[in-house]
Amino acid sequence: MTQYFDPSGTYKAYSNDGKKLFSEAGEHIGHFLNGFLYNTDGTAIGHIRDKKILDKKGQTIYYTN
Questions:
Q1: Whole-angstrom Cα distance, residue 12 to residue 47?
Q2: I need a surface site. Which of 31, 34, 53, 55 has the fewest CB within 10 A?
Q3: In contact, 51 and 2? CB cutoff 8 Å
Q4: Partners of 13 in the beta sheet?
Q5: Comparing C-alpha atoms, which of 39, 46, 41, 9 is closest to residue 21?
Q6: Mind listing the pLDDT tens digit for each residue in 17-56?
Q7: Quick check: 35 and 27 in contact, CB under 8 A?
Q8: Domain containing 27: what range?
């Protein structure tokens, strides 16, 4: 399981398979495809760079260890 944290270091989300993203409460909040994170509506909300997920402005949404 990969855990994701917000920029302040608070645990926010996880992925068991590297394909689907779930909130800390277990709600499906997005999926990964071709280096991008998409919300459940299919809109790209970020891209993956190293161990970070960055928004369209390059700001960190989530990071992992």
A1: 17
A2: 34
A3: no
A4: 4, 23
A5: 39
A6: 999 999 999 999 999 999 999 999 999 999 999 999 999 9
A7: no
A8: 2-63
Residue with tokens 């394909």: 19
What's the distance, Cα to Cα, between the start and end of the chain in Å? 11
Our CA dihedral for 43, 23, 53, 33, rounded to 10 degrees, sits at -50
Other CB atoms within a 10 A radius of the CB of residue 30 amount to: 23
User: Which pLDDT value is given to residue 35?
Assistant: 96
pLDDT at residue 7 in the model = 97
Please give the tally of structural domains in the chain: 1
Which residues, 6+ apart, have CB-to-CB distance to 45 below 8 Å? 30, 37, 38, 39, 55, 61
Return d(Cα 3, Cα 9) in angstroms, integer.
11
Model confidence, pTM: 0.90
Question: Which residue has 């909300």 as its token pair?
Answer: 45
